[in-house]
Write a structure and sequence with these properties.
The chain is mainly β. The protein is 0% helix and 54% strand. It has strands spanning 3-7, 10-12, 18-25, 33-39, 46-52, 57-59, 67-72, 77-82, 91-98, 102-104, 108-112. The strands form two sheets. Strands 2, 4, 5, 6, 9, 10 and 11 form a seven-stranded mixed sheet that branches. It has a four-stranded antiparallel sheet with strand order 1-3-8-7, with no helix packed on it. The radius of gyration is 13 Å and the shape is globular. The protein starts with a strand and ends with a strand.
């Protein structure tokens, strides 16, 4: 079984920055993609950013130019660097990995408010 543990969420002022981390444990192989999603009450979970096995990245339009996804394969860890944060970015953020199956982290709250 693969387990994902997230960290880095919290309260930040508009225009500020946060870096989320996701550390995977268990047997990790045949990775297709690692990603970040977010969800607010009453909304579907939506893709924020994804990095594929070959290194290609995809970003939602609402974060393009502000957020960056990266990974450290040796540590089975990936990150979401969030800059120029807006109140609309407030959500629970979930990390995700797709290999032979799909696994999710527990979620971490990000609140952007003054």
């Amino acid at each position: 079984q693969v387990q994902l543990v997230e960290s880095g969420g919290g309260l930040v002022q508009p225009g500020g920055s946060l870096r989320l981390s996701c550390a995977a444990s268990g047997i990790i192989f045949n990775v297709y993609a690692m990603g970040w999603y977010r969800q607010t009450p009453g909304k579907q979970r939506e893709l924020v950013a994804r990095i594929q096995s070959g290194g290609s990245t995809n970003y939602a339009d609402f974060v393009k130019g502000r957020f960056t996804i990266s990974r450290d394969n040796a540590k089975n860890t990936w990150y979401l660097q969030m800059n120029s944060l807006k109140p609309e970015d407030t959500a629970v953020y979930y990390c995700n990995v797709r290999l032979y199956g799909e696994y999710w982290g527990q979620g971490t709250q990000v609140t952007v408010s003054s």
